Amino acid sequence: MIHMELETCLEAKCRAFVPALTAAVKTSVGAWHKNVMPRHFKRGASGRYGYQKRNEKYLKYKNKRKPGRPDLVYSGYSKKILSMPMRVTASKGIVRGAFASNKKTRHFYMIPSGHPNKPAELKTLTDGEVAKMSQAVKEMTIARVDAVKTKRRIK
């Protein structure tokens, strides 16, 4: 006896949703690192992303030694390390980005009390960037789920 089971389109699409969403977010994180993150190291980034006010004493010190540098750039070392390729991984629906370099950005991630939280400033997005990324994730997810075909199983 042959037993044929038809899988409904909805069941197949439901099963494909989480992997499709994960892949879309993974792509979006890679695009953020390549296109959005470098904007944080440019002039005007403090106004665009709402960085914390820097200490006047520090600003005088920095402008004396490194004039014209944006808020997140003093020597350029952190920018160089953070701009290196990023490894984006996904596991159990959680997407993480990790820098491929083993070099530490100690001055970037060392946050004494009263100092600006530079990692949080780096990850800040404008409302427009959030909307663009959300739309891109939505479109990629829909495209991947819509590409799923129903399967026929014969037992």
SS content category = mainly alpha
- Taken together, the total number of domains comes to 1
Number of helices: 7
Helix-strand string: EHHHHEEHHHE
How far from one another are the termini? 9 Å
Number of strands: 4
The residue fraction in helices comes out at 40-55%
Alpha carbon gyration radius:
22 Å
General shape: elongated
How does the major sheet shape up?
2 strands, antiparallel
Q: Would you identify the regions where 5 or more consecutive residues have pLDDT less than 50? A: none
| Mean pLDDT over the full residue set | 82
Q: What percent strand?
A: 5-15%
Strand order of the largest sheet: 1-4
Question: Can you offer a commentary on this structure?
Answer:
This protein is mainly alpha-helical and 155 residues long. The chain has one domain (4-154). 51% of the residues lie in helices and 12% in strands. The chain has helices spanning 9-36, 45-49, 56-65, 77-82, 106-109, 118-123, 127-146; strands at residues 4-6, 86-91, 94-99, 152-154. The strands form two sheets. It has a two-stranded antiparallel ribbon with strand order 1-4. It has a two-stranded antiparallel ribbon with strand order 2-3. Helix 1 runs antiparallel to helix 7 (127-146). It is elongated, with a radius of gyration of 22 Å. The termini are close together. The model has no long low-confidence stretch (mean pLDDT 82).
What labels would you give this structure?
single chain; 155 residues; mainly alpha; two-stranded antiparallel ribbon
Task: Map the helices and strands.
Layout: E1 4-6, H1 9-36, H2 45-49, H3 56-65, H4 77-82, E2 86-91, E3 94-99, H5 106-109, H6 118-123, H7 127-146, E4 152-154
Antiparallel strand pairs: 1-4, 2-3
Helix pairs in contact: 1-7
